[in-house]
Amino acid sequence: MRDVAVIGVGMIPFGRRDEDTLLEMLAYASLKALDDAGLGDKTVDAVYVGNMGGGIIQHQTAIASSLVDRLSLLPAAADVVENGPASGGSAVKNGVLAVASGYYDTVLVVGGEKMRETTGWRATDFVATMTHPQAEYIYGVTLPGMAGMFTRLYMEKYGVTREALVAVAIKNQHMGGLNPYAHVEMAITKEGIYDDHASIVNNPTIADPLHLYDACPVSDGAAALILCPLEKLKNPAKPPVVIAGFGQATDTHTLQEREDPTDLKAVTLASQQALEMAKLKPSDIHVAELHDAFTILEIAESEHVGFFKKGEGAKAALSGKTAFGGTIPINLSGGLKARGHPVGGTGVAQVVDIVWQLRHELPKERQVKNAKNGLTVNFGGFGNNVLSFVLRRVEQ
Amino acid sequence: MKREIGIVAYKCKKCGKLHYPFHDRCLACKGREFEQVKPQGNAKLLTFTRIYNLPWGFDQRYLTIGVVEFENGVKAMGQLKVDESYPLEVGMTMQPSWESVRVQYGEDVYGLALRPLE
Amino acid sequence: MAIDMELEAVLRPTQYPMPPYPPKVITLANGKKMVVRQAVREDVPEILKSVHPCLFIERDYYDIVSARLYGELLAWFRHRVKSEYCLMGQVDGYLVGVVNGRMENEKVGMSYHTLAIDRGLRIGSHLFAAKMEYHMEYLNQEEVLIVAESPIGFRRWMIEYPLEETKIPHELGGGDSWRLTREIYFKAKPRLVVGDRPVPPELMEEAEADIKFADDDTIRERIAGLKGR
Asked: Within an 8 Å CB–CB cutoff, is residue C159 touching chain A?
């Protein structure tokens, strides 16, 4: 198995992109990554496209085939990878395996979603399609609803307070304000979303005990990577970043069949696999992008990947340990909360953000000094299909 | 008309693990033979939430959803038919029924409804 | 152009006496303070400067809402509508939202429009609630008839209050009205109507000194995209 290096990355600003079609967004992000890799006028061997809703929202299927045609990447092998909100992560995994196996030398991985093409009610319904059709979906449960039920149990078990959730929201929106690619660039205050009585309108309950500012926005956007074997890199212009480890694990489909619904087993397993493969411990990680579709998940995942003991994640968030400058900065891109969550694109965007960190290419207000090792967690379903990647900077 | 609870749970004939919804192979021992089990008795509320941003197809302001465990161990999700201000608590006993939980393409869709046991 | 006041006496409709709306201040999610106060007729030409760029924004029905709002405010200014009022939201003196409506008669109010110029801060929700507060608590009306042109409005009002359906046509000429009754209003008030009175003097002074307007491009950018706030 060969080491897999990321030699190019690209992202387009996330947000409401009425002017762009899904294919256009995927193409723009891909071109940026190709240019970044110095392959602007070259082809690749294989393409993996992470996307969840093309068939449902855009009424368009087989988009990998459309993309390679648009981008003149023919006759590259091309697949669409659908794994709910972990479509991006799964696309990355497939790309990594393709290169590591020795079969393909240059691989484009791109993830994207155009969710704002439709109304909020339909977007909510689209996201809910990943729940169990007879046992969950029919009841009108939504992903915020699943998260609300999880949060209630997590708060009861570990004493997580709303203040901790508010701290995560404020941190991530602040970082979003520093990120030109972020969907939400508005800093919020504790007064406006929690302390003042106007917060009942500013930050209403969406699925109690979760509020509006505990949830990520509905976004359009795309991000891309170019992967190639490390051994083939000669005099790279930038220090290579390798995907040193990956992991994926699944758990029961329905919430009720989890042995302990507060135990995100798939997160623990996936991140353990990734860290073991990379021969690293959680304490070796300098920066992480976790899947904070809901603020509670950033806290829970920070525990399940091993940054903090179970029940300590909330305290860490409140004390600034996970902020820029903290002991383990999490979601310096703004996370899903502020950078945005075009579902199929997120898993790829997380890797792009970590690559920027490990290349030391970010402006100093977001760059972790001497970052060498990074970790991502991309959550699919509600915790029932999770991918994790560990990336490492290769010094020359 | 009081309808029968339309949930069928599956007890593995080899190891006894109870499943709902259906799995082709037992989650514990990979067995393939199951005995059908209906949920019995009342249900204990394991967790719940009130959802305010509803998916397409719902015209109401909010929906209360919960996960419950029946007296014979069957666990399921259902709609809690309570007012917004009703003081729900984890651990409460709920009375199950089988009612219309939504309307799709003009037809009622039936599912598990739960009310606090008075 | 000289106005023939004798002719005006025939053309101008009679007005119901309308007690003033006491100004209030609301803390927004980003920590900024929005002063909500009533506009006077003389403010209309300035307000229209902010409404004007919205006439050309299709996104979220801004074009139709601002076109109708423009006409309504102009009608008020030119004394051609009965008992209209207008409330404004200002942050740092800048106009961030406008709502209007009128008294159909002593008991029934007619809600006109809600235009949010700064987005992502629930300004529309806050100002709509303020005008319902005006109808119910200061004009002491029994009900308000409401329609929505945009799905966002529909979600925030028809579903979130919730409002009652009626078969009464709304004077805007679109769908049938929905109704807010005193009962629904007071039940929804704790979760939908916020704000502090009185407004601290320095904020009030800033708001009253000048109705500041961002330039057309900034307004278009605020409505169409959310970068750089």
From this structure: no
